[in-house]
Amino acid sequence: MAHRTARWLVAGACTIALASGLVAADARLTSHTHTRDAAREALTVRASTHDRLRAANDAIGERIDTLREVNAKHEASLASTEGMLP
Predict the structure, then answer these.
(1) What is the rounded distance in angstroms from the CA atom of residue 37 to the CA atom of residue 64?
(2) How many Å apart are CA 63 and CA 28, to the nearest integer?
(3) From residue 15, how far is each of 1, 7, 19, 22, 66 by CA, in Å?
(4) pTM of the model as a whole
């Protein structure tokens, strides 16, 4: 009878250890899933921000090109009037 009780105690201890291991593994998996989801969301936000920044950068580049053309015209106009002033 004592032998049978010991087997039940060992089986119970193993079951408890297995259950606690499964609970811990499930908690880690849930944590990793949340971390992965947060990283995926952050990546989506960064990609969207990158696209907006690229569009803004292109617009600024076009504005700079326009201003360079205007500046070149002004410099050409000034060069053509050089020497006209006393």
Answers:
(1) 40
(2) 52
(3) 21, 12, 6, 10, 76
(4) 0.54
Which long-range contacts does 68-77 make (Cβ < 8 Å, 24+ apart)?
none
| Residues 27-43 pLDDT 10s | 999 999 999 999 999 99
Structure tokens that stand for 53 in this block = 């920044």
Cα dihedral across residues 25, 29, 31, 32: positive or negative: positive
Measured CA distances, 19 to 12, 22, 65, 66 (Å): 10, 5, 68, 70
Helices (H), ranges, the chain: 2-80
d(CA 59, CA 70): 17
Separation of alpha carbons 53 and 60, rounded Å: 10
Question: Which of the listed ranges 7-11, 22-26, 49-53, 80-84 does the model predict with the highest average pLDDT?
Answer: 49-53
Q: Which tokens go with 10?
A: 């060992």
